[in-house]
Specification:
With 232 residues, the chain is an all-alpha fold. Helices cover 71% and strands 0% of the residues.
Amino acid sequence: MQATTKSAPAGTMPARPRKERSENAARRRGQLIAATTKSIVENGLARTTLATVSAASGLSQGVAVFYFANKEKLFAEVLRHHYELYERLWVSALAQAGDDPVRQLAALIRADFDPAACNQEALIVWYAFWGEAKARPRYAEISDIHDSRHSDAIRAACARLLIEVGRSQEEADALGAGIEALTDGLWHRIYLSHGTMSAREGLRLAARFVANIFPERGERLSAEILGTAQEA
């Protein structure tokens, strides 16, 4: 018996293949996330609305509602997207560092001041959301999930380096927390400087302080953080 192919009813368009629909959905979601980011940078979080997102994206408010249901869910996805970009950056840097704890710690610190993560637009978005995290549990939840993974990576690198230099691993938690407080504080200073303090300057300050935390490997650690280490 010969197989027959169903055709679309007269006057209607044939259904798009599933892959094409999925790609279109991903593209539109990406457009909306990028447009929301742009609006937050230009207008702030409080003044970003579905109308400003629609204007920035060229898509209707109805499209935004279709993909994200409401503004709050869209905002949550923007925050998640920024964390995912940042996480891919430091995870990749850590993977390239190999098994050397000096390079691992240096890679994590250097990633924090990479222009892809530490620039005025990105910092505006970070601080817009962090300022609302206490009042909006969803933002805090997303932040906690991603921040905890980064904290674990910093502590693990510190623990490995402590073992290498013959110090107690019990210092790892305190040193990891201190390094994160340092980089967070430098991000804050860069953000408030409105462009007068560069990410490179922040990196130099971080290198100086972290080298003092591990004087046994201070010179090499500083060189690795600053990217001036010589290949063996």
